[in-house]
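Example record for the data management plan.
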Amino acid sequence: MHADATALLAGWTPTSPSAAQARDRTLRLLEAGPAAMGRSHRAGHVTASVLVLDATGSRVLLCLHGKLRRWVQLGGHCEPGDRTLAGAALREASEESGIAGLRIDPVPIDVDVHPVACGGESLHHDVRFAVLAPAGAVEQVSDESEALGWFPPDRLPEPLAGGTARLVAPGLAALRRSPLRPAP
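Corresponding structural encoding:
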């Protein structure tokens, strides 16, 4: 997984200046080796999240996070069984949405570094992907969410977590450029 994350980010063309800065910070973090992939790495750790788009690309699925009390994209920590960042992101999206048959674009749409209280002060180096839900997908709230909701990209709910809105444009661009597919 560490090798996948390093190669993926080293070869990625950022979608914004802030994503470029976050990518560079994340590549520096990854110099610490595989430990940077796990939440026990106090200096920070890599996470994976997704912007889920409906089959038409006219709505995005967001989660009202139980702890943050803000609407966010789906995602979370990498697990020992994950082989790739895209696979970790897709696993998290499936678990948190309850939707089977999600398809992912394995090219990131954003990278964001933000502080968290994961068992103490730390940083999430969050690599974000676009995911397409199958037609007729019905979401199911997980234990990590208060609610799930589909929203038009130009009418996102409040309160919204920082950085979530900026995923819409690159997420829609990914939908146009790529046949989204199952993760490796």
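Summary line stored alongside the record: The helical segments are 2-10, 17-30, 85-97, 168-177.
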